[in-house]
Design a protein that fits this description.
Length: 302
């Protein structure tokens, strides 16, 4: 039977690896899909397929509407480069300890996800080293879904794996937090597989953030983008930043000035909640750093 629909796993030169019912096929762009330059096919895209040619290569005839699209800015403002589509969830992975968590980095990654309309959650690994789990409490209070777990002891691991089932997920985080250990526990050899594929794609002519998608035996897909943190915060206006922090969304409605930057303005409800401890001081500190970055970032027209 001819597969008529598939999910793009990777781009390899001018060809795509596409997952279809019962396996994987190779496909290229044909007809209208090929002419629509803006409609570039990315990892995670759901595509319609024409029948294969004699070499068994299928044609991509169209791209189904995307639920979301992760894009990366190209250097010197020459437009955006799409990275991956149709993500269900971004998991920011940190360790509870060893290496010590970097709140700045965690908050940056969470905000990038929010800014791209991707539901974000936090995975706190190595909970065996910090049973008190202060980080877990803190980020739950901020409004995030948090998965405390330990690859070493196995605690919480099944709950997290269950959340991956049937979904398209992206894992990101600093090195040393246990991402490879976690992937290998989910599926032996999985960490090696994602690393090998990204290397292969990355060695191409364009030194871009290449993404690949790996199907999970337990159901679902993992998107691997080596440069998620480089996707950046570029596409949001400084004024929108606070709304990328879930715990600030409600107080920011009560600030005296509608264009409050939550730095020094009088009557700022966000700062009030920082002062009373409702908003964690570290989260607010991250907000200020990211805001400064956005305010000083070169604009497209500069
Ligand atoms: P990655 O760089 O994020 O892929 O991290 P790795 O998977 O290579 O893990 C880094 C180190 O953390 C390794 O020495 C692992 O054995 C260790 N590690 C991973 N998970 C846990 C855990 O749950 N608890 C503890 N104590 N160590 C862990
Ligand atoms: Zn304010």
């Amino acid at each position: 039977m001819i597969p008529s629909e598939g999910r793009v796993l990777a781009r390899e030169g001018g060809q795509f690896r596409v997952a279809v019912a019962g396996g994987e096929v190779t496909a290229i762009l044909r007809g209208k899909a090929r002419r629509d330059a803006h409609d570039r096919v990315v990892v995670g895209d759901l595509v319609t397929l024409d029948e294969g040619d004699r070499q068994g290569i299928y044609g991509i005839s169209g791209v189904l509407p995307r639920r979301n699209l992760l894009e990366r800015r190209t250097p010197m403002g020459r437009g955006n480069r799409p990275v991956a589509a149709n993500l269900d969830r971004v998991y920011v992975v940190t360790a509870a300890a060893n290496p010590a968590p970097i709140p700045q980095l965690i908050d940056r990654l969470l905000a990038i996800a929010e800014a791209n309309d991707l539901p974000a959650a936090l995975v706190v690994n190595k909970i065996d080293l910090d049973p008190a789990g202060e980080l877990v409490t803190q980020y739950r209070a901020a409004g995030y879904e948090v998965y405390p777990l330990s690859v070493r002891s196995g605690l919480g691991v099944e709950t997290f794996f269950h959340a991956l089932r049937g979904r398209e997920s992206l894992l990101t985080g600093a090195s040393g937090v246990g991402k490879s250990s976690l992937l290998n526990r989910l599926q032996p050899g999985l960490a090696l597989r994602t690393a090998a594929i990204s290397e292969k794609v990355g060695r191409g002519k364009q030194t871009t953030v290449a993404a690949v998608m790996v199907p999970l035996e337990s159901g679902g897909w993992l998107v691997d983008t080596p440069g998620f943190s480089e996707v950046g915060l570029w596409d949001i206006a400084p004024r929108e930043l606070a709304s990328c922090f879930p715990e600030m969304r409600s107080p920011l409605e009560r600030c005296k000035f509608p264009d409050c930057s939550h730095r020094t303005e009088p009557g700022c409800a966000v700062r009030e909640e920082v002062a009373t401890g409702v908003i964690h001081a570290e989260r607010y500190a991250s907000y200020l750093v990211l805001l400064e970055e956005l305010l000083t970032a070169p604009k497209d027209w500069e």
